[in-house]
Amino acid sequence: GQYATLSHCWGARQPLATTKATITARERGIADTQLPQTFRDAVHVCRVIGIRYLWIDSLCIIQDCDEDWASEAAAMSDIYHYSVLTIAAAGARDSTEGCFQPRNGLTLWPWFGTVFGRPSRVTRYSYNRRGTDGNLEDRENNCLNSSVWVLQEEVLSRRTLAFGCEEMTWKCQGMFASETLALGVPHAKITYDHRLRLQGSISTSQLGTEQPSKAHIFACWYQMIADYPARNLTFKKDKLAAIASLASRFATASKTKYCAGLWEEDIIKGLLWASDSGSTGVFPDQRLVEPLAPTWSWACGLSRAILGTSSESRSAVHCDASH
């Protein structure tokens, strides 16, 4: 049957989880009173909408079982992509804070105007604060931005209902809307948000739109990884694992071999990266004892990668990836 998924920040407090010791009890059921606030709120949303099932990573993956982790990580692409809805607890730092954050309604001042040529009810607050840089979301106060795993949840989900600190937002493959942009903005008009470009690159078959060029797909990928290492990494080994499902989708869309964060047909541009020591305080020449990836990949260290930005087309080359 149809199911929803929950995107949430684990934070410093371990959320309610399934382990080898608790799997039998979990299969029998979980009382509402056992659930942390974020989980309870997500269940409430599902009941109101009429969705019977809810997938939550900490409960649906056996946390201390490597085999189950490997199996579920490989399926993550399908889990979020085929979910009817992703509920995002964007304003919660951990599972105890809930989806519905206390907020001051007076911070949103009504203002009527035209957005991208369409009449829309917006607000003076969001216009002044977020309209100047073209960002329709309050990314600064989005707790989910800090998680490496949430990136692929954002991109792979076909519909996302996010509960933030200041307002509720909606994203699907054709529209962005919020409490202050109730009429919505078509994604075709939102060219600056690389997450939406990423969605378009891997979801064109369902939208019925023209297949994007490989150059477009690669450009979207590089935009994503330029920001990616800045997100918190609890376990170093997760650096490439956390985007493996995205890589699989991109490999299918581009029909190109994936090479530890790079692409065979765009390998020259992919190799044009440098380590940004300022992002972590780790100097570029300080190598990890055990690199996180091959040393020619941007993913080999902890620093943020500065990537080559040239848009010139390059000839395809053959690459034999090896450790």
In which range does the helix fraction lie?
25-40%
Largest beta-sheet characterization: 7 strands, mixed
Number of distinct helices? 12
Biggest sheet strand line-up? 2-1-3-6-7-8-9
How big is the Rg?
A: 20 Å
Structural class: alpha/beta
Order of helices and strands: EHHEHHEEEHHEEEEHHHHHEEHEE
**Principal-axes shape call:** globular
Write down how many β-strands occur, each being a DSSP E stretch of 2 or more residues.
Answer: 13
State mean pLDDT (0 to 100 scale): 76
Query: What low-confidence regions span 5 or more consecutive residues with pLDDT below 50?
Result: 124-136, 204-209, 279-286
Tell me the distance between the termini.
Answer: 43 Å
Strand coverage percent? 15-25%
